[in-house]
Input
Amino acid sequence: MFDQPVQLEIFPTDLHLRRIDSAYNMRRFYRLSVQRDLFGGACLIREWGRIGYRGQVMIETHDDEGKAITALMKLAAAKRKRGYLGIGTSDLGQESQTRSPTRPVRLSAARS
Output
């Protein structure tokens, strides 16, 4: 049981990201997955949308698994720049801090 070494993945093949910002009523997810196809290549499956809904799916085909993982890492970096956080991170429960709310707050004046 404990005598077999465990190999950890250096390059992830599945990635789940979220972006939650209640100031903009934004609850988005972005899911990336690399899977082998029947022809010896690899597919990068991208799924995105609003949390709680099915969302959209796009499948990109690549020559090998290394190119698909490279594309996954590039997309993940771009999404993290835009404020998406990984599901396994400790700061997931906090709202994204990439943009501060700039919408003005309308205060209703009391009429007499």
Remarks:
- The mean pLDDT is 79.
- The first helix runs from residue 65 to 81.
- DSSP finds one helix and five strands in the chain.
